[in-house]
Structure formats: C-alpha cells, structure tokens
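testing teh design pipeline on a random one, pls ignore if ur not involved
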C-alpha cells in the first residue's frame, strides 16, 4: 500500500515492527543478562554479608572472650595483690614474732648464764661447807678420841686419807694393857665401821645407827661396852 507520496507504509510499518521486535528481543536479553548479573551480584553480596556477619560474630565472640579473660585477669591480679598484701602482713608478723623470740632467747640466755653462775657459787659454797663439815667431824672425832684416850685408854692412828684405827685399852680388868682395835672410815660425811678385832657380829647394825645419828662418841662407848661384855664372857685361863 502506497500513499500519495509513493511511500510503502505497510512495508515501513513491518520494518518498524521487526525493528521493534528486534529491539524488544535485545532488551529482553539485556534485561535477562542484567537480571542474571544483578542476581549474581546479589548472591555475591549475600555471601559477603553472610561471611562478614560470621566474621563479625567470631570477632564479637573473640572480643567477649578477651573481655572475660581481661576481667578474669583483673580478678586474679586483684586476688594476687590481696594475697601478696596478706603474705606481706603475715611475713611482717612472723618477723616481729621472730624478733621477739630472739629477744626472749637472749633474755633466757642471760638468765641461764646468771643461774649457772649462781649454781657454781652454790656448788663452791657446798664444797667448801662439806669440806669444813668433814674437817669438823674429823676434829670432833679426834677430840673425842683424845678424851677417851685420857680417861678410857683409847688411842687413834690414821692409816689412810679419812681412815683411822681406834685402839681401846683398859677394857679388861685382868689385863688392862690388852688392845681392842676398830677401823673407822669417813666417806661422804658418813662414818663407816670397817673392821673390828676381836670381831663384832653386830658391826653392820652399829654402823647403821652411827650413820643415822652421826654420834661417834656414843658409838665408841657402846662398842667399848661390847668389848667389855665379850671379855667378861671369856673363860679364865
């Protein structure tokens, strides 16, 4: 169909329609490609967002763990400071107590040294007293023997250190010169009746009585009487 200008409007219309159809197809393909690209980009962005969220969650979890660790370390550090302060206080108390113990030990040492010195003084005094007492007893014994020698015919002879022989005479009326011997020892301030001539069976009992009383004079008197009784019981020759 041609118009008055000789133009085939139908052909032109068909051409325009084909061109529009081609443009539409191209547009459809472009839209499809664009949709695919947009979809791919969306998926990529979605994947990136998921990955970023996962990293964010892990980072947040790590931060929480670090925060908890920091809090725990702060608590432990605080506890450690408290423990250190407490240990320092206990150490100071122990040091003061030890210093007090050392001072007390020094005082005890001084007191002990003083006691030892006093004990030594008492021991010296006791030794001197024992020596004087022993000398007094020996002197008393010698005085007693001298008295007996004068009135009862008694004589004494020292044989060893702290040992002497007492000799009795004038015991027997028929033989006044007959001798009766008694050996006496002095050990640790105690008299010991060692031997007798003639023997006396009761010598141990006499010694016990002498140790109990310490009266040597009475013991010698008793022994002389025993010698007299023994002499009176002897048969006449």
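output:
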């Amino acid at each position: 169909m041609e118009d008055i200008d000789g133009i085939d409007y139908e052909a032109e219309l068909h051409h325009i329609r084909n061109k529009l159809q081609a443009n539409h197809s191209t547009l459809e393909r472009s839209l499809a490609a664009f949709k695919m690209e947009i979809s791919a980009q969306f998926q990529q962005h979605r994947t990136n967002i998921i990955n970023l969220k996962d990293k964010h969650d892990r980072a947040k979890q790590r931060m929480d763990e670090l925060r908890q660790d920091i809090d725990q370390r702060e608590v432990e550090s605080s506890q450690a400071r408290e423990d250190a302060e407490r240990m320092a206080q206990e150490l100071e108390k122990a040091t003061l107590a030890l210093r007090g113990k050392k001072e007390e030990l020094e005082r005890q040492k001084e007191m002990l040294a003083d006691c030892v010195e006093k004990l030594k003084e008492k021991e010296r005094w006791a030794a001197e007293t024992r020596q004087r007492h022993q000398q007094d007893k020996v002197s008393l014994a010698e005085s007693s023997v001298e008295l007996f020698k004068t009135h009862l015919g008694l004589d004494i002879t020292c044989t060893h250190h702290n040992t002497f022989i007492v000799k009795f005479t004038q015991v027997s009326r028929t033989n006044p010169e007959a001798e009766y011997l008694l050996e006496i020892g002095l050990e640790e301030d105690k008299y010991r009746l060692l031997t007798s001539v003639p023997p006396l069976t009761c010598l141990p009992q006499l010694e016990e009585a002498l140790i109990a009383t310490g009266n040597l004079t009475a013991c010698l008197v008793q022994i002389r009487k025993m010698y007299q009784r023994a002499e009176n019981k002897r048969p006449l020759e």
